Amino acid sequence: VIATMRDLRKKEKLEEAAGPALGKTLSIQRLDVCSDSSVADQRGSLSPPHHAAVNNAGVGHVGPVESISVEEMKRIFETNFFGAVRMIKAVLPDMKRRQSGHIVVISSVMGLQAEAGGGIVFNDVYAASKFAVEGFCESLAVQLLQFNV
């Protein structure tokens, strides 16, 4: 199992939780889901091919929409939505070729609330990014049934 983090300076809690598995069946490596090259570099180092991929990357922001710059909104979408897309694109070809695999994307109840028409006060951009993830994954799931993924 390979656990990845954008900032390895924060890995102590993960190492502690890993216990004796660290260095044996679990390794921690750097990966930034916002970087095509970081994802490509990590993808090349994974062996054997993926049987499951879990994407848990995410960032949030609380505040009224007028206080959030468009650049900050893009950063939130870059991590929460496009980060998940990058990771899925990295593992999908092998899974489709093997006709097996599991993709787990950790989203947020806020994405489901947005989908159901429930507003989330001061979390509009975060909820929108997670709503995008929900829609993407629901559509992708239908397509991937034929590949047993």
TrEMBL record:
Which GO terms are recorded in the biological process aspect for this UniProt protein? Answer: retinol metabolic process
Q: Which InterPro entries match?
A: NAD(P)-bd_dom_sf, SDR_fam
GO CC field? cytosol
> Pfam families, from UniProt?
adh_short (PF00106)
Supply one GO molecular-function term. all-trans-retinol dehydrogenase (NAD+) activity
Q: Which Gene3D superfamilies match?
A: NAD(P)-binding Rossmann-like Domain
Keywords from the named record: Oxidoreductase
- Family classification: Belongs to the short-chain dehydrogenases/reductases (SDR) family.
User: Know the name of this protein?
Assistant: Retinol dehydrogenase 8
